């Protein structure tokens, strides 16, 4: 595939917005989904299902954040959950565990909206906090199952660069799932081991360290109207 430059030379149709950061760094909590077209490769790269899913996840997170002060918009939040399930199904395949994870996240959000926006008795608040704690435990268990499912979807022999791209996509999805439906009292993780590889999220790009000592710089690419990809280049 011909390129106009290295992976760092993506062409921005507008200045980088939080959507670019979400696709690149998967920082969904701070996402504002504002522009349908952000950057394009000079020639179309091969779409990656994991990276394409992250676009849908970013939209879900940003819309949920927009609606969090509106208790009456519960039906819209339910629809967003169903849309995210459909996005996962189309890109990564069927997963009852992921569907359950989304259901719990939507329910958790409804609890938080209600507790923030509506007057409740002390007893009701206590009961809801107990339910939230139980949900959090289930969410953490489901995340581990879903991450294992995602890793298996990309199995197969690859050349070195394609393998780095495969690992980078898996790593970014794993980090997104780790951050999904969670409130961290500390900074969320920015690196994850995928087998013998280490994927590090640097914000505008990801770095893959291989077991033989090579490193790759990997940049997400949004393919307008179709999905997303990731392009890696070996560091010199």
Describe this structure in words.
The protein has 236 residues and is an alpha+beta fold. 51% of the residues lie in helices and 14% in strands. The chain contains 6 helices and 7 strands, in the order E-H-E-H-H-H-H-H-E-E-E-E-E. The strands form 2 sheets. A 5-stranded antiparallel beta sheet has the order 3-4-5-6-7. Strands 1-2 form a two-stranded antiparallel sheet. A hairpin with a 3-residue loop joins strand 6 and strand 7. The longest helix has 32 residues. The two termini are 21 Å apart. The relative contact order is 0.17. The N terminus is likely disordered.
Gap from first CA to last CA: 21 Å
Major sheet:
5 strands, antiparallel
Quote the average pLDDT.
81
**Widest sheet, order of strands:** 3-4-5-6-7
Fraction of residues in helix: 40-55%
Low-confidence stretches: 1-42
Report the order of strands and helices. Answer: EHEHHHHHEEEEE
Shape: elongated
Number of helical segments with 4 or more residues = 6
Alpha-beta classification: alpha+beta
**How many runs of DSSP E, i.e. beta strands?**
7
Radius of gyration: 19 Å
- Measured by DSSP, the beta-strand proportion falls in 5-15%
């Amino acid at each position: 595939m011909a390129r106009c430059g290295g992976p760092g030379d993506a062409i921005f149709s507008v200045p980088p917005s939080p959507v670019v950061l979400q696709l690149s760094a998967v920082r969904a909590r701070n996402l504002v989904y504002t522009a349908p077209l952000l950057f394009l490769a000079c020639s179309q790269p091969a779409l990656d299902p994991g990276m394409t899913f992250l676009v849908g996840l970013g939209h879900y997170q940003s819309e949920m954040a927009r609606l969090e002060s509106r208790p009456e918009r519960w039906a819209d939040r339910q629809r967003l959950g169903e849309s995210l399930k459909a996005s996962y199904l189309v890109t990564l395949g069927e997963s009852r565990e992921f569907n359950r994870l989304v259901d719990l996240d939507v329910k958790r959000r409804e609890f938080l909206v209600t507790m923030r926006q509506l007057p409740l008795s002390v007893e009701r608040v206590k009961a809801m906090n107990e339910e939230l704690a139980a949900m959090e435990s289930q969410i953490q268990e489901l995340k581990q199952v879903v991450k294992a499912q995602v890793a298996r979807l990309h199995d197969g022999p690859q050349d070195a660069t394609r393998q780095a791209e495969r690992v980078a996509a898996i790593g970014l999805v794993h980090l997104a799932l780790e951050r999904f439906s969670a409130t961290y009292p500390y900074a969320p993780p920015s690196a994850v081991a995928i087998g013998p590889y280490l994927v590090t999220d640097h914000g505008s790009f990801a770095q893959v360290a291989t077991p033989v000592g090579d490193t790759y710089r990997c940049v997400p690419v949004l393919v307008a109207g179709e999905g997303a990809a990731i392009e890696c280049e070996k560091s010199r």
